Amino acid sequence: MILPRFYPIFDDVAWLRRMLPLGVKLVQLRIKDQPQDILRAQLAEARDLCHAHDAVLVVNDHWQLAIELDCAWVHLGQEDLDEADVNAIREKGLGLGVSTHDKAELRRALALKPDYIALGPIYPTILKKMEWHAQGIEKLTHWKEQLGDIPLVAIGGMNVSRAEGAFAAGADIVSAVTDITLNQNPEGRIREWLEICK
């Protein structure tokens, strides 16, 4: 399947209730440090919301629950790969996205034949403490040369004004987090993203 070019990431299903009606068609739910029952309830609601809005839900990290709840996609960071059963994910037919930061991680990701590979942070990000410095958009071009037909996601410090440069450098998809969630008008910002990512 051809994935949409705009890929917001949210930490609570409440965001999906607000943003899916605006036309978001690809979304990741990245929930950390929540009890299993809350996590399961949020993912189940997110799955149903995305189904109702003909959108793709990507579950960050929680691959067992993604399988259990019959979700369609999972995203794994490098640390997640250490513990995840990629064979089980594949046997269930889930799409797989993988985070990368350096050449060793890229080789590891490519060996899994994922459905997309993310590179980041492209720009400095306030989202989380990272050992990785900003990669810069030039690295997107190098990564895309290695990926071939595998979609490349640019993430980290992305905003509306930086998206065009990321696409020009080789990104197929641009992911945004705080540019939306910390915006005074998140719905308005989503509309801007959808317009430039047509």
Automatic annotation (TrEMBL):
| Entry cofactors | Mg(2+)
Q: Which Pfam families match?
A: TMP-TENI
Report the record's Gene Ontology biological process terms. thiamine biosynthetic process; thiamine diphosphate biosynthetic process
Keyword Transferase: yes or no?
Answer: yes
Catalytically driven reaction(s)? 2-[(2R,5Z)-2-carboxy-4-methylthiazol-5(2H)-ylidene]ethyl phosphate + 4-amino-2-methyl-5-(diphosphooxymethyl)pyrimidine + 2 H(+) = thiamine phosphate + CO2 + diphosphate; 2-(2-carboxy-4-methylthiazol-5-yl)ethyl phosphate + 4-amino-2-methyl-5-(diphosphooxymethyl)pyrimidine + 2 H(+) = thiamine phosphate + CO2 + diphosphate; 4-methyl-5-(2-phosphooxyethyl)-thiazole + 4-amino-2-methyl-5-(diphosphooxymethyl)pyrimidine + H(+) = thiamine phosphate + diphosphate
What range(s) does the Thiamine phosphate synthase/TenI domain occupy?
12-180
Q: Which InterPro entries match?
A: Aldolase_TIM, ThiamineP_synth_sf, ThiamineP_synth_TenI, TMP_synthase
Which terms are listed as keywords in the entry?
Magnesium, Metal-binding, Thiamine biosynthesis, Transferase
Pathway, per UniProt?
Answer: Cofactor biosynthesis; thiamine diphosphate biosynthesis; thiamine phosphate from 4-amino-2-methyl-5-diphosphomethylpyrimidine and 4-methyl-5-(2-phosphoethyl)-thiazole: step 1/1
Give the family per the record: Belongs to the thiamine-phosphate synthase family.
Output this protein's name.
Thiamine-phosphate synthase
Species whose genome carries this gene: Pseudosulfitobacter pseudonitzschiae
Upper taxonomic classification of the species?
Bacteria, Pseudomonadati, Pseudomonadota, Alphaproteobacteria, Rhodobacterales
